[in-house]
Specification:
Pfam families: ABC_tran. It contains 18 helices and 22 strands. The protein has 514 residues and is α/β, with parallel strands linked by helices. It has two domains: 246 residues, 3-Layer(aba) Sandwich (Rossmann fold), CATH 3.40.50.300; 251 residues, Rossmann fold. A hairpin with a 2-residue loop joins strand 4 and strand 5.
Length: 514
Amino acid sequence: MTDALSINGLSKTFGGHRALDDVELLVAPGEIRGLVGQNGCGKSTLIKVLAGYHDPDDGASIAVGGDQLHVGTPGSGEAAGLRFVHQELGLVESLDVVDNLALGHGYKTTAIGTIDFRAERAGAKAALAELGVDLALDTLAGALTMSERTMLAIARAVQDRSGEARVLVLDEPTANLPAAEAVRLFDLVRRIRDRGVAVLFVSHHLNEIFSLCDSVTVMRDGKIVTTRALDDLDESGLVELMIGRRVEEFLAEPEETTDAIGDPVLQIVDLSCGAVEDFSFSIRSGEVLGIAGITGSGREQIVPALFGAETRGGEITVDGETVEQGRPDLAMSAGIGCVPAERLSNAAFATASLRENVSVADPWGFAKGGVVRVKREKSDVAHWLERLGVRPTGDTERHLSTLSGGNQQKVVLARWLRRNPRVLLLDEPTQGVDIGAKADIHALVDAAARAGAAVLVVSTDHGELTRLCDRVIVLSVGRVVDEFSRPRIDPDRLTASTLKKPAPAAALAGTRTR
């Protein structure tokens, strides 16, 4: 049987750094292959080579369904049957389902050259039905749920307008999806697999790899470490292959912090924002509070509203002092630090230096007589980069864009931790980072709480909330449906709770799950 994807002798060098080193990879038709590895291991570079964004070094051979891929030639991958769905889905939110399916392919036309809308709608309906995807054709992409948007992007990729799809590459397709919505996506991927299409599935969520994939390829330092059937592995064994070290140090429980929890620092009364109405809670010094909920629960609006990036109602106080709404500058002055969910859009300056990214929240702290003392600034930033384990080390002038996702997230954290915040707001703090960086970031959250910060963690990763939090509040349709405290916090309990519908307000009064 001819392999759906065959890669031999693939290397890619940037300057003096070899990002890919003699990669060999075979994927069979109808196989779902997981591709895993820490940030910076070479996964993204491999996908960009396949997509034609990077040219490989000389000597590489790539074939799709036995046909040689002419890397660097526009349309070569598409014509060979290679399809991609990236984390950024490439949909146009102001266009409907039919128009988004036509993007990149063009419209069917009538004999006089106008768009044949009847044929377009019929073709779109057939393409979705073939995959078992139920979407209203007139719905704007911006009105779809995240899982529906992802399914629309997949349907666009595998439709036969450019020929038969042979290999589908899914790059972190569940990064923004709650677990319940990811299940719907997996059903679609299996239906595509059953048509004989090979799927290369890239994910940092190892539970997804074990749930969906037939086999897994592990990358480390630009090389393929191994390809294994998942029947031969458990999660701990896979983690050790990824990081090249024993897994125990990454699974350590946080130090007990209950005795160190002090008085309330952040107090919220009748918060209203987006789907959330009249939500009241407080966080004490040294406490880590988590918020869980599926997409649309109101979870997504909490951190932006508290930091002043979105309009809100209600009262927020830090150490008894009111924080005015809509004013991130006043939130910062009150001692609030914020790491938003969309790092690249809302927190990071990709083409600025690490020094500038860290000191941007307080540049005048290094000034004298109105002039920034760059030498002092570099020294302070270098200290924090080393303290947080940012790699590569030693160069504060390196552009942020040159770092892996996990190291970029550490830089954003350094921006706030160096200010010794009274309140630390973390929205999806480890989204899109590898397991090693995730463990490092969790340790930094532990340290911030031990230092007395009141920490809020909003996350769709229920394992993360279980690992970090002293309490977790669960939202559904903007209302509190449960609250759990240690030792009652666990991923399965949180997942079940997020699927609840809120009870009438009177029924909730005075209830709390411990």
